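Lab meeting, action items carried over

1. Structure of the two-component assembly. Owner: GW. Status: complete.
Input record:
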Amino acid sequence: MTRASRVPAERSKGFFEALAPGGRRMLFGLAAIGVCLIFAFPVFWLVLTALRPGYAVYYVHRGTDFTLDNFLEVIVQEAVLKGMFNSFMISTLATVISLGVTVTSGYMLSRFKGPIPNTWFSLIYVFRCVPYVSWVLPLYFVTQSLGIFDTYWGLLLPHVAVHICFFSWIMKGFFDGIDPSMEYAAMIDGCSRWGAFWRVAMPAAIPGLTALAILCWLYTWNEFLFALILTSHQTQILTVVMAQFVHELGMDWHLMSATGVLALGPALIVTIFGQKYVIRGLKV
Amino acid sequence: MTARRRILGLDEKQRFMIALIAPAVLALIAFQIVPILAGANASFRDWSLHDPQKTWVGLKNYLHVLGDHDFLTIVLPNTFGFMFASVGLSLVAGLMMAMLLNRRFAGRWLVQTVILLPLMVAPVIAAIMVRWMFNDQFGVVNAILGLFGIEPLAWLTQRWTAFFAILLTDVWLWTPWFTLLLLAGLQSLPPEPFEAAQIDAASPWRTFRYITLPMLRPVMVVCIVIRSIDAFRTFDIVWTISGGGPARATEVFSIYAYVEAFQFLNFGRGSAAAIIGAIIIVVFAMLLYRILNRWVEVSK
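Predicted assembly:
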């Protein structure tokens, strides 16, 4: 339990040495450790449950039997492997398509005034508010009648639609923070409107786009409701596979947790390498 | 420039604008507006899933939902209570985390990664984990309470304790989101006012209260509006942790609509409930935006 809290102290001696002089420093360090404990505890518990053998799982807090068998048992199952692959493909494709579609929309909202942008902004503001339950159910019938139910497109396109409103809004913020005078200069020098957008505004928006791409990838990787309703056997993603574990095998907490840890892995990698870009990119 | 060529009554600039938003508009229409209209159509019909008559019944479904005692006295207060509590608590917690991470200290990178952990956990995993931790026989929460001599509680089978567990999960899940946006906001503030405050020997609290907070307000407004809307329509964690139970005591409005449609198999009534919820939140979001917007401008 204390692993997460001890590491910062071990990582650098300066931390503990610095604590000695002032009580405030001490308090600050304790607060940081406490915060880490609170935030890490559920994840720590997930990992711990995943490491317990099946017979000991109901008393996670007692006994010291640990095993990696749960992971082996889970990873050989075809549904889990396929779910991981599907999750990865759908998250990546949904990120690329959502950003591609909304970057132009956000640019338009930021650079133009008049009835068209105003209407579009009100539309996305209103549709952003509509609860998922009121469209995910009919969406099932829509994807079926389009013949894309249980294909990648049948899950991808609804996901793109989920992101349109929010991302257009955020992208508008990114472009608002970029001075348009460079684009005007480019257009005076003979650049077309598309050229000004693509060659001048886009490169300046890359940090913001990176941040949004990371958040979008994480969101899609973790999404459950749409995936549950809009997929069947072909395109099941990992969160849905995992929820079924609890169902079919009657609460196999250790196997469920092992799958949960596997699902956490890629997200952890993305976050560890991406957090710098996210914070830099969200700075508008 | 010479006279602009007009196609379909649109000049070159307007065509550029429409081309920019066309893909987004098409996706929005096909995968959001059409399904919403389909749902709205069902809400005016007698559309039970086991025997769909699809006959027009006017406002009958709406009147039924609005006259439902459970909807008015349990579902709506739960939904709004959950929204205010969740947004308020995670805003305060997120602001504290952001202030913490805005300082330089050894091990900051690690603390930051740990604080961002909930962002990486799928809400459904978190919810299953919370159910496990709050399990009345085998859960770790009761085990820890037992160390302090507190009797085990049946957390998820009583209204308020179940509600507390759900709220705690939601705050845990969304605090990092507030932290990220507020931290980005903090780091983009100009340094001059803080230097001035330091020269004037202002206390940290006064610096925070009179400089940081007012300058952060625009970011906070956007966060509050976006998160309130999301908290209003929360589904997955409530569904996984309590399923709206015990009985229907922790049902929020998304669960109500889902249960009406898929457990009572009345798609028309479920759609009507969803539309009522949508209208409430759209009106609420507009009011919120107005109020917060004015608040920001006044403070400038």
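2. GW to write a short summary for the group page. Key points so far: Residues 69 and 81 of chain A are 16 Å apart (CA to CA). Chain A touches chain B through 95 residues (CB under 8 Å).
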